[in-house]
Amino acid sequence: MPDPIILVVDDEPWVLTRCKAILEKALFKVMACTSASQALAILARQPVSLLLADIDLPGLDDFQMLNLARSHQPELVLVLMTTTHTVEVAISALEQGVNSLIQKPFSEADLIQAIKRSLKENEHRRDLLDVMEGHGLGACFRITLPEGEST
Predict the structure, then answer these.
(1) Region label for 129, one of left (φ > 0), alpha (ψ between -120 and 50) or beta (otherwise)
(2) Do the beta carbons of residue 51 and residue 81 sit within 8 Å?
(3) Residue 9, H or E segment
(4) Total Cβ atoms within 10 A of residue 120
(5) What is the CATH number of the domain that holds 124?
């Protein structure tokens, strides 16, 4: 698997700077932008492994950005940053196919752990699907994916 590329999206420049510094220190390739429209433009033209996005981006409903992002890149790993980590937010995030949710403010270790865990879980999911398809088992299981996503 090639080195993961992480796209960080937050309308607060200090959050972008902090996330970028933490992730680059952990040897990730990082791109950053301050709006959903910028992020969607990047996703339309360049493969990205993981989207780390604020749940409350101006101009969009909570999960609208994620649905648009996945329309460009269905295999995209999604990690959301939020200041309001309620049960309702967590349930909605799971229903939308979010891989991980991290509450602001977060520590360096928490961010790195969420990113690594999400990437690893996605890799395991892909490996499992490959094995199942290789053994002709793909049609034996119904895999439920977020709306608009396909295997």
Answers:
(1) alpha
(2) no
(3) strand 5-9
(4) 11
(5) 3.40.50.2300
- The whole-angstrom separation of Cα 25 and Cα 142 is 40
Residue type, 9: V
Secondary structure (3-state) at 68: helix
Find the mean pLDDT for residues 126-147: 55
Q: How confident is the model at residue 151 (pLDDT cuts 50, 70, 90)?
A: very low
Residue type, position 134, single letter: G
Q: Count how many domains the chain has.
A: 1
User: For residues 92-107, b (16+ Cβ closer than 10 Å) or e, as one string?
Assistant: bbeebbbbbbbeeebe
- Whether 151 maps to a domain, the answer reads no
Query: Is the residue at 147 inside a domain?
Result: no
- Maximal C-alpha separation, the chain: 49
Q: How far apart are CA 60 and CA 82, in angstroms?
A: 15
